[in-house]
Amino acid sequence: MKLSLLGAKFTEESGILQLMHDLGDALAAGDDILMLGGGNPARIPEVESIFTDRLRSMLSGSDEIEKLLASYDAPAGNRPFIEAMAALLRGHYGWEVGPENVALTTGSQTSFFFLFNLLGGESQDGRHRKILLPLTPEYIGYADAGVARGLFVAEKPEIELLDDDLFKYHVDFDAVRVNEDIAALCVSRPTNPTSNVLTESELLRLSALAAKNDIPLIIDNAYGTPFPNIMFTETEPIWNENIILTMSLSKLGLPGVRTGIVIANEMIIKAVSAMNAIVSLAPSSFGAVLAHDLVASGDVLELCRKKIRPFYERKSQQALGWLRDAMKGLPYRVHKPEGTFFFWLWLENMPITSQELYERLKKRGVLVVPGHYFFPGLEEPWRHKQECLRVNYSQDDDVVRKGIAILAEEIQRAFSS
Questions:
Q1: How far from the centroid of its chain's Cα atoms is residue 404's Cα?
Q2: Coil, strand, or helix at residue 371?
Q3: What's domain 5-47+302-416's architecture?
Q4: 207, 300, 393, 396: which could form a disulfide with 294 (CB 3.0–4.6 Å)?
């Protein structure tokens, strides 16, 4: 059987495919795998109990079952949740956002597939337009989301060396160039994989640059505020008619419900809704109905502030301590932890590539994600791409501590060779 060009593109080896295969293999293997890869959030008992209680309540009422299972939603998604989401953003941030500015998708990965292909690729005038990533490394899931090949172009960051073993990426605005072939700018904040939080100044400059060129700025807010608020620096999000803000229920602790949220101007929302209708008729109701009361009451903000953010901040500090103890005497740096639940480890001048280190760790039952997958659109050779790893510290403390110890042993072995 011969596949189409699209079929061939979507079935070839890719970073996101490897990551999800590893996640599936780890779940199947149970306790035999130390899972420091993937993007699965932690299981936080106080958070899980809220959703468990809500689910029991839903199952006890026939009208709730109808909302949950027995009816299609509109292509934009569950209307009560959309109204609650718009009201939360209006009330909390003062944004001029109504239900017409919100659409749901089957997860943020779907949101980005829709947005990238709505804006980039072959345009109506025949030009091949691209998505510009002004700061790499960036999210592994972007790389293969384009129907057209060569959808992304990216710029290397400025690297600031900080005290101790830390460093931080910044946008190199001297290198960022927007021409007629650029369809949109896209950044994540906090950034997956690095935990970098773009400064307010950087974000405002990017927004102004996008507006000047009459293109949107897409901000991936999967880990940001108002929820799940896995951010360790005090900062506020921004939004205007030229910004497309994407959110998700996954990092609240609900990755299985596959609910993405797009906040944008009416034209973009209508386009996302149209793609929903064509691809899946309508997004699932499950996540929206489950999380509705938390959003409508505003209790989601308190849940994130009192439970979710402190949980991950503690995990971050604890795991960084374990990492420093295990890596004593080795040449390494960690991106300053500013959010998410990942460490971005830089092993400068390591004699082997991050892919080779990944393979060695996998043989010892530890899964991480090699760094070269996180540079979509950056075609120029750069050794730095082969020197980095993403490490997830969200899992049980014993898993993280054991995984870090084996990681350090293999890094020592690599440098010794």
A1: 23
A2: helix
A3: Alpha-Beta Complex (3.90)
A4: 300
Q: Are strands 102-105 and 260-263 parallel, antiparallel or unpaired?
A: antiparallel
Gap between the terminal Cα atoms of the chain = 45
Q: Which of 51, 34, 90, 39 is nearest to 307 (CA)?
A: 51
Under CATH, which number does the domain 71-300 receive? Answer: 3.40.640.10
User: Looking at beta carbons, which pairs linking 98-103 to residues 24 or more positions away fall under 8 Å?
Assistant: 100/266, 100/269, 101/263, 101/264, 101/265, 101/266, 101/269, 102/76, 102/77, 102/261, 102/262, 102/263, 102/269, 103/76, 103/77, 103/261, 103/262, 103/264, 103/269, 103/272, 103/273, 103/276
Residue 21: exposed, middle, or buried by beta-carbon count in 10 A (0-12, 13-18, 19+)?
exposed
Burial annotation 127-142 (CB, 10 A radius, 16+ → b, else e): eebbbbbbbbbbbbbb
3-state secondary structure of 388: strand
User: What is the reported pTM?
Assistant: 0.93
DSSP state of 72: P
Q: List the chain residues with pLDDT less than 70.
A: 14-31, 61-62
pLDDT tens digits for 16-53?
Answer: 666 666 656 655 655 678 999 988 899 999 999 999 99
Domain ranges within the chain, ordered by starting residue: 5-47+302-416, 71-300
